[in-house]
Design a protein that fits this description.
Layout lengths: L1 E6 L9 H9 L3 E6 L15 E4 L14 H14 L4 E4 L1 H9 L4 E14 L3 H5 L10 E11 L5 E6 L4 E6 L3 E4 L7 H10 L7 H32 L1
Helix pairs in contact: 1-6, 2-3
Length: about 230
């Protein structure tokens, strides 16, 4: 398959992390659009078999500071309309919701670190999110959330925010970060040290949960790519 990864941070500190590694390991062709770099701007959305959209330090409504957000939203809207398989992570999930007409804004409470997520009945039955356990510790780093676009189905939620949704049969969004690697988090914990509610506790929880979390991330990514490949 031809897979597009849309990222909003340098590859050394962000990007698609584990998910990009999985695409390469499966033998699929990976293209990267590093926003807002015009040199890496992709072709038409329908020229890809699957598109993944990842996180970033910006918020999904900061068009004044990041005017390219409107261009990305237009690209994602086109991908949705053409039914290209689409998976958004954190900011990516928020941007997909925005592109489909959902509102975005401050979450009920921010989440930085590890928190519990429990998929609902629809989430447990979903072909992508359903590969996750019925209750899991998820790594989070967000201040914003999304309202569900028209036609979307909620797949998971906790006290802080909506955590996952499916729009139609080809589009998914997750608020948590299943793509993170140790390398990425080592950078985030330094660059975002002031945002960590309890740095020692977050690092301790990361040591405890990251290995299992990466296994869950592999399941999720492979389920999405398998669903995309099935057509």
């Amino acid at each position: 398959m031809r897979v597009l990864s849309i990222v909003h941070e340098p590859s050394s500190t962000g990007g698609g992390g584990l998910f990009e590694e999985i695409v390469a390991a499966r033998g699929d062709d990976l293209a990267r659009w590093v926003m807002p770099d015009r040199a890496s701007e992709p072709g038409a959305a329908e020229s890809y078999d699957a598109i993944m959209v990842f996180g970033g330090a910006m918020h999904p409504d900061q068009d004044a500071e990041h005017p390219w957000l409107a261009d990305e939203a237009m690209f994602l809207r086109d991908a949705i309309e053409r039914e290209v398989p689409l998976l958004g992570v954190c900011l990516g999930a928020q941007l997909i919701a925005r592109s489909a007409g959902g509102s975005v804004g401050r979450a009920r409470q921010p989440e930085v670190g590890w928190s519990i997520v429990e998929p609902n009945a629809a989430g447990r039955a979903d072909p992508v999110l359903g590969v996750m356990p019925p209750r899991f510790e998820a790594f989070q780093w967000h201040y914003y959330s999304f309202e569900l676009p028209s036609g979307a189905e909620l797949l998971a939620e906790n006290d802080a925010a909506r955590q996952a949704y499916r729009l139609g049969e080809r589009t998914w969004g997750v608020q948590f970060h299943p793509e993170v690697t140790r390398h990425m988090l080592d950078h985030w914990f330094v660059d975002g040290a002031s945002e960590l509610p309890d740095p020692a506790a977050v690092r301790r929880d990361t040591d405890l949960h990251l290995g299992t979390w990466n296994e869950y991330g592999r399941r999720l990514c492979n389920a999405f790519l398998d669903t995309a490949a099935a057509g």
